[in-house]
Amino acid sequence: MSQRLNTDGILSPAETRVASGYVSGMIAKEIADACGISPHTVVRHTQNIYGKAGIGHSTNALVAWFLEKNLNLDLSEFRRRVGAVVLLGIITIQVCATDFDSDFVRQGASRRTETARRAARGRRKDNDYTTI
Predict the structure, then answer these.
(1) Which of 47, 49, 50, 31 is closest to 39 using CA atoms?
(2) Which own/partner contact pairs does 122-128 have at CB distance under 8 Å and 24+ positions apart?
(3) pTM, two decimal places
(4) Are 20 and 7 in contact (CB under 8 A)?
(5) CATH architecture of the domain with range 6-74
(6) For every residue of the chain, which 3-state class applies, written as one string?
(7) Angle, to 10 degrees, between the axis of helix 39-53 and the axis of helix 28-35?
């Protein structure tokens, strides 16, 4: 890394690369490929980071700790939850605003319509029942 991070005094250069990979959204195998190391080494570096940072064994906690230390952000539990709700809202709005005229959606609607027609044909009227 070319710029100095606040975590450089806490983490080794290899651990910093691993933590940066997690912050970038990579999984352990992708980090291993990018750094040219074994996935087992990534796991070991991750465990070392958890110990040095004093955080639980959670990638989300690792990313929050890394960002909090290097960007001077306050990522308390409450703020993380609020942020997650806001992101969920943004994603929901984007999904709802997408064009639902795709063939896949139309195909699903036509199946539901056909199922409703079959059900209607199979229904009997009240006077069709005979009493014994």
Answers:
(1) 31
(2) none
(3) 0.55
(4) no
(5) Orthogonal Bundle (1.10)
(6) CCCCCHHHHCCCHHHHHHHHHHHCCCCHHHHHHHHCCCHHHHHHHHHHHHHHHCCCCCHHHHHHHHHHHHHCCCCCHHHHHHHHHHHHHHHHHHHHCCCCCCHHHHHHHHHHHHHHHHHHHHCCCHHHCCCC
(7) 110
The burial class, CB within 10 Å (0-12 / 13-18 / 19+), for 1 is exposed
* Count of all residues that appear for the chain in the document: 132
Structure tokens at 55: 């955080």
pLDDT in tens, 83-100: 778 878 888 887 777 655
Q: Yes or no: say if 30 and 59 are a contact pair by the CB < 8 Å rule.
A: no
Domain chopping of the chain, boundaries: 6-74, 76-122
Q: Looking at the predicted structure, is the pLDDT value of residue 60 above 70?
A: yes
